[in-house]
Task: inverse folding
C-alpha cells in the first residue's frame, strides 16, 4: 500500500530527523538560558531609578514584543548581510530567539519582583543590608520561584518557535523534515512525525515544570 510505503520511508529517515532534533534541543536550551539571563537584566533595568536604563529597557521591550520573530530572524540573517555583517545561520537564530523572548521574560520577572511586598525591602534595609543584597538574597529568590509557571510557558514557546530557524537554513528538526519530505515527495507522514517530535519534547518540559512546582510548593501547581 502507498501509505505503508510512505511510512517506511519516514522510518528510514529517523536517524536524520534525530540529528535535526538534537540541533533543535541544543538551540532551544541555549536560547532559553540566554533569554532568561537577558530577561533578568532587562527587568532590573526596567525597574531601575536610572531613567536612561529604564528608557533603553522600554524601547527594547517595545520593539521585540511589537515585531514578529520571523521578521527579526530575517533582519539578522539577510538584512545585516547588506551591511557586510554576515552571521552564520545558527548564531543568527540563537541571537534572534534570545532577543525576542528576553523581552517577554523581562516583563515576567518585572511583574514578580514588583509583586514582593515593599515591607520586605524596608525590613531588610533597616537591618543594615544594602539594596543589592536585599535584591539578591531576599527578593529575587522569591520572584524566581513565583515566576516559574509563566516563565516555563515562555521556555516552551522558545522550543516551538525554534522551528522558525528553518527559514534561515538552520539544519534543525523542521528543516530536516522539509528537506526529506521534498526529496521523497512524502508529506503527511513526515509532518505528523514532526508534530510528534515536538509534542514529546513539550511533554517532557511539562513534566519538569510539574516537578518544579511540587518541589517549590507553588500555589496552583500539581502538589
Result:
Amino acid at each position: 500500500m502507498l501509505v505503508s510505503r510512505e511510512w517506511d520511508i519516514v522510518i528510514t529517515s529517523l536517524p536524520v530527523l534525530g540529528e535535526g532534533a538534537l540541533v533543535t534541543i541544543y538551540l532551544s536550551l541555549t536560547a532559553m538560558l540566554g533569554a532568561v539571563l537577558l530577561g533578568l537584566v532587562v527587568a532590573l533595568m526596567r525597574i531601575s531609578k536610572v531613567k536612561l536604563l529604564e528608557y533603553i529597557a522600554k524601547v527594547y521591550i517595545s520593539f521585540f514584543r511589537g515585531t514578529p520573530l520571523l521578521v527579526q530572524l530575517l533582519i539578522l540573517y539577510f538584512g545585516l548581510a547588506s551591511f557586510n555583517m554576515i552571521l552564520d545561520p545558527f548564531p543568527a537564530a540563537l541571537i534572534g530567539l534570545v532577543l525576542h523572548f528576553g523581552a517577554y521574560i523581562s516583563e515576567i520577572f518585572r511583574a514578580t519582583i514588583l509583586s514582593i511586598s515593599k515591607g520586605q525591602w524596608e525590613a531588610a534595609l533597616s537591618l543594615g543590608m544594602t539594596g543589592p543584597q536585599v535584591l539578591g538574597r531576599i527578593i529575587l529568590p522569591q520572584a524566581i520561584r513565583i515566576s516559574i509557571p509563566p516563565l516555563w510557558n515562555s521556555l516552551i514557546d522558545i522550543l516551538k518557535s525554534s522551528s522558525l530557524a528553518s527559514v534561515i537554513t538552520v539544519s534543525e528538526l523542521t528543516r530536516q523534515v522539509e528537506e526529506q519530505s521534498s526529496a521523497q515527495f512524502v508529506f503527511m507522514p513526515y509532518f505528523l512525525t514532526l508534530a510528534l517530535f515536538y509534542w514529546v519534547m513539550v511533554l517532557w518540559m511539562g513534566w519538569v515544570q510539574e516537578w518544579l512546582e511540587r518541589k517549590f510548593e507553588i500555589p496552583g501547581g500539581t502538589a
Summary: The chain has a mean pLDDT of 92.
